[in-house]
Structures are given as C-alpha cells and as structure tokens.
Write a structure and sequence with these properties.
Low-confidence stretches: 1-7, 62-75, 253-258
Strand order of the largest sheet: 2-3-1-4
Mean pLDDT: 77
Number of helices: 11
Order of helices and strands: HHEHHEEHHHHHEHH
CATH architecture of one domain: Orthogonal Bundle
Radius of gyration: 64 Å
Shape: rod-shaped
Structural class: mainly alpha
CATH class of one domain: Mainly Alpha
Distance between the termini: 27 Å
Strand content: 5-15%
Helix content: 55-70%
CATH topology of one domain: Helix Hairpins
Length: 459
C-alpha cells in the first residue's frame, strides 16, 4: 500500500543509520564494485618508471676571465632561470639528446618519424627545487633503464649546448674584436702621425716647459719695460726743464743752477766774477769807460757761451729722451710679443691637447680591445660552464605510476562516499510506509491493528 507523505518530522542521526542499514546490501555492493574495478584497472595498468637527473645552474660563469662583459646575461635572475628551464625542453637540446642516445634505433617506430626528438617532449619535465640553484630533470617511461638514460642524456645535452653556445658567443666576439682591432690600429697610427706633424709644424717640444720658459721671459721683459718706462719718464721731465730754461733764458742764476753740466757751471762762475768786476768798475769809472765796456763785453761773451752750452745740453737731453723712448717701445713690443706668444701657445696647446687626447683615447681603446680579444680567445678554448650535473639518474626499482596503495585507498574513499550517497538517494525517492512506527511518525495517527502479509501456500 502506497500512502503519500505530506509532512515529515525532523531528521536525527539514528535515521541516517537506519537508512544505511536498510540499504546495506546496496552500500556493500557499490563499495565492493568500486574497489574491485579500481583494483583491477590498477593492476592491469602498465607500470611507469621515472628517472631523475639533478643539475646545478649557476647565475654566472666562474670569474676566470673578464669576458662576461661580452657575454652579458639578463638583468632579472628569475627570467634567467625561466629561460634556462625552457632551453632544457627546447628542440636544440632534445635533438642533441636523441642523437647522443641513438633513440631512433632503440625506440620502435621512431626511425620513421620526421621529428624523432618530439618523442621526448611529453616525457621530459623540469622541476626547480625552491630556494636553490638545483633543477631536477624528470623522464617517465615504461622502461626504467631507458627513462634513466634519457634523463642523463638530456642533462648532458643541456650542458654541452650551454658550453657550445658560450664558445660560439666567445668566437663571434673574437671575430668582431679582431675587426675592431684592425680599424683601431689604423686610427691609432693616423692619430699619432697627425699629432707628430702638428708638433713639428707648431714647433712644440714640451708644452709645459715652453709655457714655463715663456712665463719667465714675460716676467723679465715686464721688469725691463718698467725700468725703461721709469727712465723715459725721468729723461722726459729733465728735457722739459731744459726746454723751459732755453725759452726763459739760460743765463739766469736760477736757471743755470738747474743744469747739471760742469762747463755751464764753470762759465757761470766766470760770469759771476765778471759781474763782481763790473760792479767794482762802476764804482770807479763811468758807464762809457773802456774798462767798463771791456768787462761788459766779456760778460756778453760768457753768456753766449752759456747759451751755446745749454743748447748742447738740450740736444743731448732730446737724444737721450729719444733713446729712452725707443728702448721703452722696444721693451713694450717684446712684452706684447711674449704675451702673444703665450696666447698662441695656449691655442696650440688646445689643439695639441685635442690631438693628444684623440691619440690617447684611440690607444686606450685599442689596448682594451686587444685585452678583450685575448680573453675571448682563451674563453673560446675554455671548458668552463655554469651548468653542472650534481646527481646522475639511477635506474628506479619502484614505478611512480600506478600507485596501487594510493589508488585502492582512494577507491575505498570514493566507493564509500558513492555507496552511502546511493543509499540516501534511494531513501529520498522511497515514499512508502513499511512499519507501524512510520505511520505514527509520518501521519501522526495511532495504529489500530496490523494485518500481516502472508504468502499463499504453494500447490
């Protein structure tokens, strides 16, 4: 009898247990079937073995040479290592590993493949170890020996690829440096020749020495010019006094006293004596007396001689002034010439410095390129590499797949969840009442009686 249920009371834990017990055979059957299927599939699955080779990738080469400047790496360490991981799985490395291991003759059907190296793409995995420079190269294959050989082969192929790449870079750098070195050698020779020609043309021996000599010469010429100027000023002052004396009267006592000339002083002394004689004669004789006239005549004669001597002294002073002026002009010309020489020398020094710096720069650049060329030559023949195989792969004894215990454990968990879920699913869609307790629980009505379900006897 099917009675629709319109209202159900709250569910308790014992209801869940009752449901599980009610469908216990369904639960057991589903659980057993799930475990059985997974167990059979696990034992029928082909075992997969994993070979693991561990390599260490250094950020830079050991600093035996300075060629690292030519072989500069990426600025980011993370990008550098990500690049290396991709190189390990690259076509170049896998092709090299395929050739080293001769896989075309060992793996069936691989010889007919247009790209035998593609066989390794799905098998090779790269797993870096966190916080270290170590990288695990993992290869999975049903053949444990082949998986081990492939892992070691890929590690060795990666190391050789890195070494060959560095050698190629070094050789390319050496080729480029050789070309640059030839051009720079020509530039060095040309710049040295230009410097030497300019030195000869400009008459430059040693710039610093010439500057010191010229500076000392200017100092001496300046002193001589000042002396000549002082002399000329003194001579000019004396000449002007003589000119004034010549214009105002050379026979006056005050004027003659200014003239430092023995002849004039002697004549002046004679004139003074004659003046004394004239004064005495005038006391005795008249103005027209022969004796007075004689003395006056002698005085006039002496004055004429004094004027003549003053003219001689004036001409001598003028000659001395011209000589002093000429000497001053000469000293000034020499001083200006020396200053101009310093200026010209400074200009020559600038041009000389430009040529010298160019020659020095070319020489320095040539020496640097020569040094780098030698380093590149040594690096091209060096076996140094930044990749080292730390641990070679060994033949695994236990497969990594399938993991029987784990699969069975997971099958038990899944089977238990599935079987219990199936039981609750069946209970959810079962709306029939089977016991008097369910009538009271679901309908809220008392049970008046129970009619047993009896099977009819068999005939």
């Amino acid at each position: 009898m099917q009675i629709p249920v319109t209202n159900k009371p709250g569910t308790h834990i014992h209801d869940y247990l009752r449901t599980i017990l009610k469908y216990r055979w369904v639960v057991i059957t589903c659980f057993a079937v799930t475990i059985g299927i997974v167990t059979i599939a696990t034992f029928l699955e082909t075992p997969i073995y994993e070979g693991v080779a561990r390599v260490m990738i250094e950020r830079e080469l050991p600093r035996v040479l300075n060629i690292q400047e030519v072989q500069s790496m990426d600025a980011s360490t993370q990008e550098f290592y990500q690049t290396q991981y991709e190189i390990i799985k690259s076509r170049s490395v896998l092709v090299k590993a395929t050739e080293m291991l001769r896989l075309t003759s060992r793996v069936p059907g691989l010889a007919d493949s247009p790209e035998p190296w593609a066989f390794l793409v799905s098998k090779v995995r790269v797993e870096p170890r966190r916080g270290t420079r170590l990288v695990d190269i993992k290869v999975q294959d049903p053949d444990p020996k082949l998986a081990t050989e492939i892992a070691n082969g890929v590690a060795q192929a990666y190391g050789r690829f890195t070494l060959e790449t560095r050698v190629k870079i070094a050789r390319d750098a050496l080729s480029w440096l050789s070309e640059q070195m030839s051009e720079l050698k020509t530039k060095v020779e040309d710049s040295e020749i230009a410097l030497q020609r300019y030195r000869q043309r400009a008459g430059i021996i040693v710039i610093d020495q010439q500057k010191n000599v010229t500076a000392q010469r200017i100092k001496e010429l300046n002193t001589m010019y000042l002396d000549a100027q002082a002399t000329r000023v003194a001579v000019e002052a004396r000449l002007r006094e003589m000119q004034v004396l010549a214009r105002t009267g050379a026979t006056s006592p005050s004027g003659v006293a200014l003239v430092d000339n023995p002849s004039i002083q002697r004549l002046r002394a004679e004139a003074t004596d004659l003046d004394v004689q004239l004064s005495k004669a005038l006391k005795i004789y008249k103005e027209k007396h022969p004796e007075v006239l004689k003395i006056r005549s002698q005085i006039d004669h002496v004055n004429e001689r004094i004027k003549a001597e003053v003219q001689l002294v004036l001409r001598a002073a003028e000659a001395e002034y011209r000589l002093a002026k000429s000497r001053e002009d000469t000293m000034l010309q020499k001083l200006n010439a020396a200053k101009q020489e310093v200026q010209d020398l400074s200009e020559k020094e600038v041009q000389y410095g430009v040529l010298a710096r160019e020659a020095g720069s070319n020489q320095q650049l040539y020496d640097m390129i020569l040094k780098r060329a030698k380093e590149a030559s040594l690096s091209g023949g060096s076996e140094a590499t930044n990749v080292h195989v730390v641990e070679e792969a060994v033949v695994p004894k236990v497969p990594v797949s399938p993991r029987k215990a784990r699969n069975i454990l997971l099958a038990a968990v899944v089977g238990l969840i599935l079987s219990v879920g199936l039981a609750f699913f069946l209970e959810y869609y079962d709306t029939s009442i089977h016991t008097p307790d369910e009538v009271e629980r679901y309908l809220g009505l008392p049970t008046l009686g129970v009619i047993p379900l009896l099977e009819s006897p068999r005939k």
